[in-house]
Amino acid sequence: WWRMLLDQYGAADVVSPEVHLKRYFPGGPAVATFTARYGPDDRVLGQFTLRAENSASMARLLDEGVRGLDLIYARALAAGQLRPDPSLIVPEPPLVEEIDETQAEETPVLPLATGPSPVGAVTILRIEVETPDQAAIGRAELAVSRVPGVTSAFTTSPSLGGTSTMRVSYMGEAAALASALEAQGWRASASGNTLRLSRGGD
Question: Phi/psi at 28 (nearest 5 deg)?
């Protein structure tokens, strides 16, 4: 799931700054513990605590905390500690796959989604798709993202062996997106801004 999330932003790793604020009583002293975390395993790079005597000092406390976290990450980067986890890097698929003539005759070729991109306001759509395994989630996201007019497509609620939910930004109407997906071999039905998606023949 980390790979899927990071791939939406073209990233290979994640940093997670964190602050835990404890207020003794309204308007009174507060203690904040700042923690610089790194990677999907929440590895701690550094931690420090600051204290504010009253509400008027809170803004300064938070500013100093942000500067402290930035310094920890900068030092870690300079020391070579911020190295991406290789398991989170999704390899790019080859642009051209070479096959022999006998394979070409036996392998069915699905039509590519072609045509001009729709023009109009961006619509936020919800897609419910049957996902028996993790690979099915990737196939669904790829199919939707290749449709002209789709500006983003990512799974917000994955469910292996059930129905996953995707959030899609599309420059057009749900019915038009359903038609484009059907051209790729999917079964698609639209109801308002919600699409129900399954593999054709499933």
Answer: -95, -165
